[in-house]
Design goal:
about 110 residues
């Protein structure tokens, strides 16, 4: 069984987006920036940032895929190892930016409470 989790992102008492979690990745849609930022499940690595055009592209590809098993391949994200290898090749570390980290810290505090 595949499990998704969804929650609201609240900062300083204001709604600012939605958080979606899947097996080994987390996507956060930031309303004001109209971007989706995707990180590894442990938020240690920033995988991708999608603009509205990127979201439309992937949504169209997902909708055009009739077979459920193939749809899961569309949703699959790069593994941690492949992202680390790409980062090493580029000579850059991929980590969440400060705004992503503050959202994750907020979620951690709520879970601890």
């Amino acid at each position: 069984m595949i499990r998704f989790a969804e929650s609201m992102v609240i900062r300083e008492g204001f709604f600012c987006g939605r958080r979606l979690a899947f097996a080994d990745w987390v996507a956060i849609w930031f309303m004001e920036e109209d971007q989706v930022k995707i990180t590894s499940a442990d938020t240690a690595m920033h995988l991708e940032t999608w603009t509205p055009e990127d979201v439309d592209h992937w949504a169209a590809q997902f909708e055009a895929t009739p077979d459920q098993s193939t749809r899961l391949k569309v949703l699959s994200m790069p593994s941690t190892e492949s992202v680390q290898a790409e980062s090493a090749d580029a000579g850059q570390a991929k980590t969440p930016d400060q705004s992503d980290q503050s959202v994750q810290d907020d979620h951690s505090e709520r879970r601890a409470a």
